[in-house]
Design brief:
heterodimer; A: mainly alpha; MetI-like fold; 12 helices; globular; B: alpha+beta; Rossmann fold; OB fold (Dihydrolipoamide Acetyltransferase, E2P); 2 domains; 6-stranded mixed sheet; 23% helix
Chain lengths: 299, 376
């Protein structure tokens, strides 16, 4: 009898040791959960309730939650140009980032040799300066009498009174510049993991370097492409600094509208509704995108 | 397929040299692999065999020399322009494609017709039909190996290169894959060039084995020929094991050379004496040596050596392996088949040993007697 029960007890012991006590997992989750509660759930709750405020209230008289769903319709009606422009600017900037970032990440991963680490440091070097300062310097670079405008005027890309500041070009350039590292790093991480022997195998199996890239390298780098485009597109769509510093009234993005609605106009209902709409739009687009690219199939 | 075109698809390397900076990996290599043969390049790691293979595949460019298939010079052809496919050591299967698409890869690049039918047939040949829709990561090592083989074979290359294809498999699986590979090669009739450091693998599978060392081919021939009549100490040690005993040539008697080994004169067949000088290494394979009690008449009329002492006995089932210390201090290896008719000797016993002269060989004294012995 004893001989039979002994192994059973041993198994129980092992289970307990591997499980490490039933509360350990919760303790480990606690800091993250608390953080999310304080800085995501609570603000999200207040944002959603703000979007349902009675639009007739004001900061002085106070707002009532009247579940006024009409806020959403009003926000879309009033601000759809800014909403669309945000998605368009962010999408364009993401695409430009992808092209520049892919070439850069590819070069660092496969061609840089011993310069690899230095180049990676250079990619993140701009982060050592503040975001605002960097964007302000772009204002100088693109200014009306800066060398870029001069050069563009000389080669007749711009007319003699043409300018770059306060154009879509300036805003998109700023976004591309500011978010490029978020594209390069995930791309580099997934390109660097690709086994060079797979490319050799593709060549051995009659694929030209061009075909080998599209049939092997590109599909294997898709996780990096997805991560990079999301990390670029999502913050870019909500960004307002680039539009504010580099753009004019014609380049206002939804971030600018929300910022001014919250801080200067103090129309909390409209600001809340617009924020929720932006969030829903982004979540919706991301879901469609991920389903299309189907990253879960990749190893 | 006509006879002429069969012959025109054999592989020829002439004076091929490959240098990496100051290191010469392959040195003026000449090699002819007839169409349809199973050819093994055997050698220790770093001997240049993989570099040779990569040059044939087009993954490395020779520093000098030419590589031809039939009459076509492919020395500088791009990998994707050669009628050559490779089974890579690590398999290099595309992780994002399933088994079917991995195998179809080469056909699709060349815009072949009836890809699906051809792939199904090839998967049947390697017995993987049921795994066609799985990803490589879901397969076992042996299955991945067969996918890699199928992926290369389906293109019907003039030359199929195998780079240590069984290296990652465990011993049992390796044995069965050796038989499998040999069967497939016979079935499809393509030229296989197999690179390996495993001498048993090379000997069991290949028609012709080339033993490579330090960038040159030491000896080439049928496995039995290489084993029975090695020409260098490297081949004698790398292919199986050999006893090499220092000796002086003292004369010739008919078809035999007389060699004085530490005072004992033995004979070696003249056509197995690969030395010009007066000194040499007398070589004899351990299983050719018979061991007997002192004074016993041994069934090996020929070279008889007295005064041995058993210093080690390893019973390995099919045979017993003795170490016998000879009067001049050298320990010789002796393998005796366990027929059950002879008694086992024990440690410290005095014995005589003997071998038939026709099994002995004589190698050049200038060569290192320990060349090719694998470090444990």
């Amino acid at each position: 009898m004893a001989a039979i029960t002994a192994p059973a007890r041993a198994t129980e012991d092992t289970a307990k040791r591997v499980g490490g006590g039933r509360w350990t997992a919760y303790w480990l989750l606690a800091p993250g959960a608390l953080w999310l509660l304080l800085f995501f759930v609570v603000p999200f709750y207040s944002l959603v309730s703000a979007s349902l405020f009675d639009p007739n209230g004001s900061v002085l008289t106070g707002y009532d939650v009247t579940y006024h769903v009409g806020n959403f319709g009003t926000a879309v009606k009033n601000y759809y140009p800014e909403l669309l422009r945000s998605l368009w600017y962010a999408g364009l900037a993401t695409l430009v980032c992808l092209v520049i970032g892919y070439v850069l990440a590819y070069a660092i991963a496969f061609k840089a040799g011993r310069w690899r680490n230095l180049l990676l440091v250079l990619v993140i070097a701009p982060f050592f300066t503040s975001f605002l300062l960097r964007t302000l310097s772009w204002k100088l670079i693109l200014s009306d009498h800066g060398f870029i405008v001069d050069l563009f005027q000389k080669v007749h890309i711009l007319g003699s009174d043409g300018r770059l500041l306060n154009t879509w070009f300036a805003v998109v350039s700023g976004i591309v510049y500011n978010f490029l590292p978020f594209m390069v790093l995930p791309l580099y991480a997934s390109l660097e993991k690709i086994d060079g022997r797979l490319i050799e195998a593709a060549g051995d199996l009659y694929a030209s370097p061009f075909t080998a890239f599209f049939k092997v390298t590109w599909p294997l780098s898709l996780p990096g492409v997805v991560a990079g485009t999301l990390l670029t597109f999502i913050p870019a769509a909500g960004d307002f600094i680039n539009a504010q510093l580099l753009g004019g009234p014609g380049q206002r993005m939804v971030g600018n509208v929300i910022q001014s609605l919250f801080t200067s106009t103090q129309d909390y209902a409209a600001a809340g509704a617009l924020s929720v709409i932006l969030m829903a739009l982004i979540v919706g687009l991301v879901l469609v995108y991920i389903r299309k690219v189907g990253t879960e199939e990749l190893v | 397929m006509s006879q002429a075109s069969e012959g025109s698809r054999s592989l020829h390397l002439s004076q091929v040299t490959k240098e990496f900076a100051a290191f010469r990996a392959v040195d003026s290599l000449d090699l002819d692999v007839p169409h349809g043969s199973f050819f093994a390049l055997l050698g220790p790691s770093g001997c240049g065999k993989t570099t040779t293979l990569r040059m044939v595949a087009g993954l490395e460019t020779p520093t000098s020399g030419t590589i031809r298939i039939g009459d076509t010079d492919i020395t500088y052809a791009k990998p994707y322009q050669r009628p050559v496919n490779t089974v890579f050591q690590s398999y290099a299967l595309f992780p994002h494609l399933d088994v079917h698409e991995n195998v179809a890869f080469g056909l699709r690049r060349r815009k072949s017709k009836e890809v699906d039918r051809q792939v199904s047939e090839m998967l049947a040949l390697v017995e993987l039909e049921s795994q066609a829709r799985k990803k490589p990561a879901q397969l076992s090592g042996g299955q991945q190996q067969r996918v890699a083989l199928a992926r290369a074979l389906i293109n019907r290359p003039d030359v199929l290169l195998l780079d240590e294809p069984l290296g990652a498999l465990d011993l049992k699986l390796r044995r069965s894959m050796q038989i499998e590979l040999k069967r497939i090669q016979t079935e499809v009739g393509l030229t296989f060039v197999h690179v390996t450091h495993d001498q048993e693998e090379a000997m069991t599978m290949a028609d012709t084995v080339a033993v490579m060392n330090a960038g040159v081919i030491e000896q080439m021939g049928a496995p039995a020929e290489l084993y029975e009549n090695p020409r260098t100490t490297f081949v004698a040690n790398f292919l199986g094991q050999s006893n090499l005993i220092a000796g002086k040539v003292v004369g010739r008697e008919g078809d035999f050379v007389k060699v004085d080994m530490h005072g004992i004169v033995v004979s070696v067949p003249f056509d197995r004496a690969h030395t010009d000088g007066g000194e040499g290494w007398v070589g004899i394979r351990p299983e050719k040596v018979l061991v007997a009690e002192v004074g016993e008449d041994i069934d090996a009329p020929g070279n008889h050596l007295e005064g041995g002492v058993v210093t080690d006995v390893s019973f390995v089932g099919v045979s017993t392996q003795y170490l016998v210390r000879m009067p001049w201090g050298q320990e010789l290896q002796v393998f005796e088949q366990n027929t059950g008719r002879r008694r086992l000797f024990t440690h410290g016993e005095k014995v005589d040993i003997s071998w038939r002269p026709e099994y002995a060989f004589l190698l050049d004294a200038s060569q290192d007697a320990h060349a090719g012995i694998e470090e444990e």
